[in-house]
């Protein structure tokens, strides 16, 4: 018997970053939107914990206990006195190290899959608590849809979304390390007065009403200057997408994936074609949002 869970990628439609805290983390106002690019995680009983991965970026995914999906299985097993003897297979479609929370998605998916396989009877709150221990973006991968995350981004409040948004994601060659991007943020903002992060009312309103035009004007990412500083060529990608008719363009999370909001599905296809031909990215993907969180298939 095996259990397969499908889990979406995310884009941060707002990422407001505060000054570094004494523990090194940053307070955030992080508005997550799940997008319809999915990994599928399958868990099957086995003699020992093993991980395999398939997909175009599979070679970049660790197959040891550094894999977040394996860590999720171990965390759930420990709580329930179970030995985590499962084979975890990740069918990976979410770009790796792209700022789209692919590893976090796999962790949430593995948790839901193992929970079903082992029939632990864990409550949703218990699963969310394990997610928060695994990483700041993991709880959102479990719930999907749209949500405001405060604290390190893990304290979630769901947001109702009133429409469908059409996106294009330009996938860059190579990843950017999230800690390195926060380090660059600290360097760029050193000696300045970094305001406390707050969710933008205009952005929340755009999500509620489903207005693409209002959302386009309200998108923001405080990590974008840091990502551009570490990877200046991303400015060319952003310009290529805007030139192709995107209503707005921004770096997704810590990058280097860039996100483009399109007026409709047809515009998204056109922007993706132009980006692929531009030579400024490895590939471009279209996706709609919101998307459901980790779901057993
Ligand atoms: P975030 O948006 O949450 O900052 P990301 O999308 O930038 O994350 P991930 O794809 O999650 O980045 O990968 C970051 C690193 O995590 C990878 O370079 C890889 O070494 C490691 N990793 C651990 N588990 C996984 C996994 N299941 N899938 C992908 N990467 C993983």
UniProtKB/TrEMBL annotation:
Domain GHMP kinase C-terminal: 204-279
Start and end residues of each GHMP kinase N-terminal domain: 67-145
The entry's keywords: ATP-binding, Isoprene biosynthesis, Kinase, Nucleotide-binding, Transferase
Enzyme class: transferase
Active-site residues per Swiss-Prot or TrEMBL entry: 10, 137
EC number: 2.7.1.148
Catalysed conversion reaction: 4-CDP-2-C-methyl-D-erythritol + ATP = 4-CDP-2-C-methyl-D-erythritol 2-phosphate + ADP + H(+)
Keyword Nucleotide-binding: yes
Pathway participation: Isoprenoid biosynthesis; isopentenyl diphosphate biosynthesis via DXP pathway; isopentenyl diphosphate from 1-deoxy-D-xylulose 5-phosphate: step 3/6
InterPro entries to which the protein is assigned, alphabetical: GHMP_kinase_C_dom, GHMP_kinase_C_sf, GHMP_kinase_N_dom, IspE, Ribosomal_Su5_D2-typ_SF, Ribsml_uS5_D2-typ_fold_subgr
Binding sites annotated in the UniProt record for ATP: 95-105
One GO MF term attached to the UniProt entry: 4-(cytidine 5'-diphospho)-2-C-methyl-D-erythritol kinase activity
Domain of life of the source: Bacteria
Family statement drawn from the similarity comment of this UniProt entry: Belongs to the GHMP kinase family. IspE subfamily.
Described function: Catalyzes the phosphorylation of the position 2 hydroxy group of 4-diphosphocytidyl-2C-methyl-D-erythritol.
Protein name, UniProt field: 4-diphosphocytidyl-2-C-methyl-D-erythritol kinase
Organism whose genome encodes this protein: Streptomyces sp. 900116325
